[in-house]
Amino acid sequence: MRRFVFLVALTALLPSLAGAAVGQDYRFRVPKLVMEVTVDPDASVRVVYDFTFRNEHGAHPIDVVDVGTFHAGYDLRKVTASCDGITLTDIRTSEFVKPGFEVHLGRATIASGGSATVHVEYTLPDMVYQDTTRKDYASLQVTPTWFGSQYILGTTDLNVVILLPKGIKPDEVLWQDVKFDQVAAGGDTVAVAWRRPSARLDHAERFSVSFPRRVMSNVVRMSKFDLLRKWFHESQNARIWVGIFVVAAWTFLYFRFTGGTGFSVYVILTALLIWLFVASPDAELLGVPVVAGLVFLNEWGLGRRRSRYMPPVAQVEGGGIKRGLTAPEAAVLLELPLSKVLTLVIFGMLKKGILRQIDAEPLRVAVNGPFAVDDKTMPATIPERAALYGKMAQQTGVAVHKYEPAFLYLIQRDPARPLSKIHFDVPMKQLIAQVAERMKGFDLSDTQDYYRSIIRRALAQAKSIGDVPMREKAIDRNFEWILMNDDYPTVFTGRPYWPTWCRPGHVMMGPGGAVAQAAGQAVDVGGKTSFGDVAASFAGWTEHTMGSMASAISPDGLSVAKPSGGFLNLTGADNLTGEILASLAEGSKEGGGGGGFSGCACAGCACACACAGGGR
Q1: Residues 436 and 517 occupy one common structural domain
Q2: What is the pLDDT of residue 508?
Q3: How many Å apart are CA 177 and CA 204, to the nearest integer?
Q4: Is residue 595 part of a domain?
Q5: Does position 153 have pLDDT exceeding 90, yes or no?
Q6: What is d(CA 600, CA 571) in angstroms, rounded to the nearest whole number?
Q7: What is the CATH number of the domain that holds 207?
Q8: Using omega within 30 degrees of 0 as the cis cutoff, is the peptide bond preceding 362 cis?
């Protein structure tokens, strides 16, 4: 049966169609519409509609009327209807308007060119709300039904009347948004009315009223979040803009997380997300803090990732572990902070006696003994300098690693300059390149795991030894490896230790970073200073020194870049999708062959929004 139906407003992220296709030959006018709403003290309302229909000549008969209700709390058994005095009893839950019901006109069907008045009454509970601007007031907000613009012609004499409970004075009634056209008192009852002689019934129009709460035995209370939720459910524009924002934020999050990969997966997930938002306004509203929080966490996580400075390594999976790397080389391999790598290089040469410490704060060193080369005799090329330091190593029995001569050369040129003021970009770059070269043919991940285990073992061993001399020997032996562990200060806290170059006969770190000179005898820390203070001071000084070394290295000079990729690489998914589409295309070649919408938004001080809309 072809039927005429009121178009219901669906507030959604994307406008949705009102069910089944409708014949386009429904054309009618509504010369007059009266909506009367009676407010009961229990917060329920009795809604009465009188629709005057004038069907156009040649239009299809109107045989069913679907009425949208303000919410789904109506009792279908208590809905009554009539048409020009003929009682209508065939009333069902609407197939198309949610929430709403459908009234079958039967023998009262309005023929082409005919006119009739359809009368409908129903009751809805929980329609009067606590006013959000005045604690002693209640509020009600209603929107008369409207029709699809493709069906309705002309204008309508619209009359909206709200009858308030007994016990209210006319001057106590307040309007919201739209001023009353009339306030009338009859006995103990006050009525407010609006009239629009030339209204267009193809969109929603809201009417609101506030009145003293004392006449109510019950009102619906809503928290601020409930108000936000209700407003969001009923505001189409808000849902559209919030949806655009959330989808945009989700897009940013997805491609940052995946490093720009997985476009096919993105399309599927985004389609599901949009469908979820259309189906559930609550899910869309919840999506705002969820997506915003995930964006924050993702950016925070990406920001905490260490800068990568290792060039691509020509590794071989299962190629074995590269053993024999020094502590600074292992630190490069593990991509520890460059300031820590530089500190390990300097401490290593201090420990071997190649350098000697001049000042502790800021750290200044000088090339020691036979390793000091006059500028006039210093070779001009790097290979020649390496050969010269190699000879010195043979003469002294002290090993000089391949990467150390470049550091010695810079220190030799300006021994009075603090290390943090010397630019070590070139030797650091050489060290990084050397490590990458040495890793060719080996398994990178296995080698990294191997050196991580050495670092963990060194720290655990030093912490487990209780005997002071034995502990000192263990720390001396694994000094640089211990410093590579993030928890290295725990080894020195409360335990007497200072490195070999700071012991009797050398410049030593004292409490608070002070420098004490120990001339061939045990250091007397005296007064209230304990060995633990000295040890704690060394740990703090080391941490400070590592931090200051950052200014001696320019990331730009080393071409250091933060990781551009995300946490998850979905390139494989894109490749798989491409293969599937290619297969489908190949199979195709082988096979051959040839309604409207509107919304209702909550007013500033009225938290009840009664909306109904129409059409099929």
Answers
A1: yes
A2: 36
A3: 14
A4: no
A5: yes
A6: 45
A7: 2.60.40.1730
A8: yes
- Looking at the structure of the chain, the number of domains it has is 3
Let me know whether 339 and 470 are in one domain: yes
Residues 536 and 423 in one domain: yes
Q: Which residue has the higher pLDDT, 263 or 12?
A: 263
User: Half-sphere exposure of residue 164, counting CA atoms within 13 Å on the CB side?
Assistant: 34
Using CA atoms, how far residue 250 sits from 270, 284, 288, 569, 572, in Å, is 8, 12, 10, 17, 21
Q: Are residues 166 and 134 in the same domain?
A: yes
Measured on CA atoms in the order 12, 15, 16, 20, is the torsion positive or negative? Answer: positive
Mean pLDDT of the region 323-348: 90
Token code pair at residue 256: 């940052």
Q: Nearest 5 degrees, angle CA 35-CA 38-CA 42?
A: 145
Same domain (yes/no): 343, 480: yes
CA geometry: angle 446, 449, 452, nearest 5 deg: 155
Q: How far is CA 465 from CA 44, 437, 469, 487, in A?
A: 80, 38, 9, 16
Reported confidence tier of residue 563, pLDDT bands at 50, 70, 90: low
Supply the DSSP string of 48-106, one letter for each residue. Answer: EEEEEEEEPTTSPPB-EEEEE-SSTT--GGG-EEEETTEEE--EEE-SSSSSEEEEE-G
- What is the DSSP annotation of 283-299? HHHHHHHHHHHHHHHHH
3-class secondary structure for 528-550? CCCHHHHHHHHHHHHHHHHHHHH
Comparing CA positions, the residue from 551, 230, 297, 611 lying closest to residue 418 is 551
Task: State the DSSP code for 171.
Answer: G
Q: Can you read off the two tokens belonging to residue 96?
A: 């198309």
Are 359 and 499 in a shared domain?
yes
What residue spans of 166-310 are helical by DSSP H? 224-234, 236-257, 263-279, 281-304
Strand 28-39 to strand 156-163: parallel, antiparallel, or no bridges (unpaired)?
parallel
Q: N- to C-terminal Cα distance for the chain?
A: 13
244 and 217: one domain? no
At residue 612, the pLDDT reads 42
Residue 136: is it exposed, middle or buried by C-beta count within 10 angstroms (0-12/13-18/19+)?
exposed
User: How long is the chain?
Assistant: 616
Backbone angles phi, psi at 96, to 5 degrees: -120, -30
The amino acid occupying position 18 is A
Tokens of 345: 């290089």
**Rounded distance between C-alpha atoms, residue 605 and residue 139, angstroms:** 8
- Domain limits at 276? 236-304
Residue 14 token pair:
């994307």
- Cβ contacts of 578 within 8 Å, gap of 6 or more: none
Q: From the centroid of its chain, how far is CA 137?
A: 40
Chain CA centroid to CA 578, Å: 30
What's the mean pLDDT when you consider all of the chain? 78
Phi/psi of residue 107, each to 5°? Answer: -70, -10
Token pair listed for 386: 């390496």
SS percent in the chain: helix, strand, coil, step 5: 40, 20, 40
The alpha-carbon radius of gyration of the chain (Å, integer) is: 41
